[in-house]
Design goal:
- It is built from 19 helices and 18 strands.
- The chain is an alpha/beta fold.
- Helix 11 (about 310-325) crosses helix 14 (about 370-380).
- The protein is globular and about 70 Å long.
Length: about 500
């Protein structure tokens, strides 16, 4: 029996400014079920690093971190791999989009150079008469640029310059990016809801879904397992993403409510309020934020420590502990989460999440220090790693609905903790491990945000400001049904 082929699209990202356009396009296509064959030029990777702040040293890891967990799959092809599947016309795809497209890549396609996989895949689209969409991002344009675009347009290439519109009332960078991605999808007759179309009522909150962020990670499962957005009185939709994207979207204002990492909340605290009694915290050992070292950490307080960039909250917790608790001033460097590589030229290495857990299971050589436990012993408080943030404007405009959302999250949390079996079974099925491990994992974390936890987080923010990790003091405002509660240090 022949296997049904899932629709596939080739997406290229070049060194033109606007890499966020390509990222949004890929995530949108994956979310609606397309497989995406991704090609990024060397200059494109550099621009991604500069504009988005991503660590691109391990490109396959970038794809896994930012493009995994969707309905479709993202398949990465190095730009030098001229023998990749998409270099052949016999490999079936729906078309190709280069977004953003540099003038250099556009020129190469116009001349039929096929000197790398990006240009070759585009050439395949032309010879096979498949859709090819280019999103040029350059200004000003000289005659050669315009002549190359005209030449390709006459060959049937769709030119969609990166020109945002403003008639739909954008309020964030994400709105402008979404508009342009939506125009590309319109051109390919792919349905989407990325922007409000002309003639449809705009800027009317009652006609829009409430957007609620959902972190994919297991530590947030209790709050979401029994949370049903369809049961809310106003139409609501979950936006499931990795924390870095949810953090960014909350800071941009394109989500109404979402769990965010604590440091991201501190960065934009003035625009948020916090939901009460919801967090991902530890009141001692956290078991997944671990420092590996050959000597006790207080003996390497001026040494060299390798970091991963997966959590600013945890990295800055380490910096606070090393400098304030141990009185040191270490040298830090960023690395891939490979313990042997990190420790080759370092006195210690910080691992976070699944990398920390797996390394601790196999470790027989290094001292393992749990940062949650150190923070508790030093300050007397638990450490909060994620909080539930709400746009302040949303809380002021829709207090009744926010009450409903807050109660729904609380009920999901309590129902999950009363019976962990569904979460444990789901974790074993999706991730692996034993029932005993996952039951201990969920029981060991704290999901409350009571006064001691609030004081612990306020202390974290105070130290972060003192050390220059945050540029401003952080004031936390905790929302309740009657008033805003301000947390004192």
């Amino acid at each position: 029996m022949n296997q049904i082929r899932r629709k596939a699209m080739v997406v290229g990202i070049t060194g033109a400014s606007g890499s966020i356009y390509g990222v949004k396009l890929i995530q949108t296509l994956l979310g609606i079920g397309y497989d995406v064959h991704l090609v990024v030029s060397n200059a494109g990777w550099r621009v991604i690093k500069e504009e988005l702040g991503w660590d691109v040293s391990d490109r396959n890891r970038v794809v896994e971190e930012h493009f995994a967990g969707y309905t479709g799959d993202c398949i990465y092809h190095p730009v030098s791999d001229i023998g990749a599947s998409i270099a052949s016309g016999s490999f079936l795809v729906e078309g190709m989009i280069i977004m953003p497209c540099s003038m250099g890549t556009l020129s190469s396609i116009a001349c039929g150079a096929s000197d790398n996989l990006m240009a070759r895949a585009a050439d395949v689209m032309l010879k096979e008469a498949r859709p090819l969409v280019l999103v040029p991002r350059e200004t000003p344009l000289h005659a050669i640029h315009l002549e190359n675009m005209l030449k390709l347009a006459r060959l049937g290439v769709r030119m969609i310059p990166a020109m945002p519109a403003f008639y739909f009332g954008p309020t964030s960078i994400d709105d402008l990016v979404s508009f342009l991605v939506g125009k590309v999808l319109d051109n390919l007759r792919i349905e989407h809801t990325l922007f409000t179309r002309w003639g449809i009522t705009m800027n009317n909150r009652e006609n829009e879904d409430i957007l609620i962020g959902k972190i994919k990670y297991t530590n947030c499962w209790p709050m979401f397992h029994h949370f049903k957005p369809d049961a809310l009185s106003q139409k609501s939709r979950l936006v499931t993403e990795v924390p870095s994207i949810l953090n960014r979207r909350m800071l941009e204002g394109s989500l109404d409510i979402s769990p965010v990492f604590s440091f991201a909340f501190g960065y934009g605290a003035e625009q948020f309020v916090l939901l009460p009694d919801l967090s991902v915290s530890s009141n001692g050992q956290v078991n997944s934020i671990l420092l590996f070292s050959r000597k006790p950490p207080e003996q390497i307080r001026n040494g060299v420590i390798a970091l991963t960039n997966t959590s600013a909250t945890s990295v800055n917790l380490l910096k606070i502990i090393m400098e304030k608790a141990y009185g040191g001033s270490p040298t830090y460097w960023d690395s891939e989460p490979d313990l042997d590589l990190m420790m080759a030229n370092s006195d210690a290495a910080l691992l976070i999440g699944d990398n920390a857990i797996s390394a601790s299971w196999s470790n027989e050589e290094f001292i393992v220090t749990d940062l949650g436990e150190v923070w508790k012993q030093w300050t007397g408080y638990g450490m909060t790693f994620a909080v539930w943030a709400v746009q302040r404007s949303f809380a002021e405009d829709q207090p009744e609905l926010l009450t409903e959302v807050s109660r729904a999250f609380q009920e999901s949390k309590h129902q999950s903790l009363r019976d962990l079996s569904p979460l444990v079974e789901e974790a074993c099925s999706e991730i692996g491990g034993t029932r005993e491990y996952w039951r201990h994992y969920f029981n060991n974390l704290s999901y409350d945000f009571n006064e001691p936890m609030q004081k612990g987080l306020a202390m974290y923010f105070s130290y972060a400001y003192e050390l220059g990790l945050l540029k401003h003091k952080v004031q936390m405002n905790v929302w309740n049904e009657n008033m805003l509660t301000r947390v004192k240090e």
